[in-house]
Amino acid sequence: MKMDAWGADIVVAASQKSLMCAPGIGLAAIGAKAWKVIDRDDRVPSFFADFRRARASLDKDGTPFTPPVTLVYGLLEALRMIDEEGIANVLKRHARLAAALRAGVQALGLELYNRPNTSSATVTAMKVPEGLEGGIIVQHMRERYRTVIAGARHPSQTGKVIRIGTMGMISETDIITDLRHLEATLADLGRPAPAPHAGVRAALDALAGSA
């Protein structure tokens, strides 16, 4: 994030969002303009999320409350891994694997939820086939195949959408495994693929073409 160049006053993130780390750390970068607002006397009182308290502790090489030490070490290691791979390569890897996943999903006969040319490299959402329920698919994959995917985020789409994340330290093996277990789950629930291993074959073709 190029805060100064892009005119961003505050940037927030979480350790699990594309940073290849376990959840539990909230991150905030604060620019000079934002500090002027934070330091005003008419600011809303706060306690735990008090940036002024955090800044005062940082000036003493500390934190205002007990930090999640193990998560901080994990985040440092994740950042080292990103640095070693190179941010451009990290982004390319996400895009490549997400494209392979989308190819596999479509080969299974599932329709992508997003509009054309608006695909995300961090999550793929797909419409649940007619006659099935998203929550049942998610539960079946988890309980029978030990593979965790997600359902809909918005109540209006409950049961109609399933999602597979592609952010963080993921590999080709993860994509192939997800597709194998998704295909098996759909078959278990009475919705077999158009052809055996259709999803895996399509993903492997996409990966070979983008190598």
Proportion in helices:
40-55%
Q: What is the count of helical runs?
A: 8
Low-confidence stretches: none
Briefly note the structural class of the backbone.
Answer: mainly alpha
The largest sheet is: 2 strands, antiparallel
Mean of all residue-level pLDDT scores? 92
Please provide the count of β strands. Answer: 4
The proportion of residues in beta strands is 5-15%
The global form is elongated
Could you state the order of secondary-structure elements as H and E? HEEHHHHEHEHH
Q: From the alpha-carbon coordinates, what is the Rg to the nearest angstrom?
A: 21 Å
Distance between the termini: 28 Å
Give the spatial strand order of the biggest sheet: 1-2
